[in-house]
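TL;DR need structure tokens for one chain.
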Amino acid sequence: MRFVLMLETVLVVLFRALLGFAFLVLIGAVLLQVAGRFGGNSPVWTEEMSRFALLYLAALGAGLSLRSGELVNVDVIIESLPERASWVLRLVSAVAVAVLGFYLLPMAWKFTAIGAFQTSPALGVTMSFVHFSMFLLLALLGFFALLRVVGMLAGTTDGRPHRLTDESEG
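>> reply
TL;DR here they are.
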């Protein structure tokens, strides 16, 4: 279990850094586009770059949001139940997310492979890079949901999300 916790910590740090980088790319592209409009010559590629950065923001942020509890979650009914029933429903939910995420991975990979035959019009990058964001989104959702399942079954967590405030205090 110690290895799993270390792996989770390393991946959280890595994907937070990549998320920050994607956000910086988005900010840079949008700022350049706005500045270009004031100067009368906005680069064409900035719109495409901002779209791709948004895709990666969503892909990288989905798994981290699932882990931290920031992903949309309707838990009013679950949390009003007795603790054991609430725990079971959180486990079922985590299993369902993990299974669905991992089940869709082969299809997302086919979608990524299709992009090898296309390039983006303005940037000229292969669309596999863009399509890979969907594969990444499903892989991260599945991975962090699986970590929740493992933690719940091992007794190291109750299945509630890791709040960001808890992480900074610990």
